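I would like you to help me understand the sequence and structure tokens below and explain how sequence relates to structure.
___
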Amino acid sequence: MDFECVDEVGYPLDDVYRLIRDDMTAIVPYLSDVEEIKVLERKEEPNGLRLTNLWRGSVSAAPRVVQSFITQDLVTWNDHAFWPNDRKVAEWRLEPRVGGKLFDCSGTTAVIPGLREGTCKLQIRGRLNVYPERLPGVPRLLAGTLRGKIEGFVVGMIVPNLQTLARGVQGYFDDKAKKV
């Protein structure tokens, strides 16, 4: 499943770029269904920055029909991102922490000029494939039946958090501006 979201942020491109590249953990309070983002690795390379962040989602966000199969480990993933020096675009790949490769998800996040001066847009594009037959405890016969519900949950967990990134960034800067 391919997805794309583009949202405007009412703050300067360079400020937004630095926040989502260098201080993503500060946005957690502004993201729905994300309990934690933790930087696992940060490596400066000659042509860019390589990051690995751990994302911990919320189990309570799962639909009731699949909650008995969902554990905290299953809503936790590593986000491997590379930010090249010459562009404000991250190439990323999400990796489930457990669950036998329950899903594959990769894409790009770009910070691009907004419609108005002093604003920017976050453009997130990606592809998500879900494999419910790899979910521990799901009987093979149910995997096909549950595929849509599990895919809906994974999409509902990952994609809205990507889509709400712009709102989270906006909320972060709005709160910061109130304190000044």
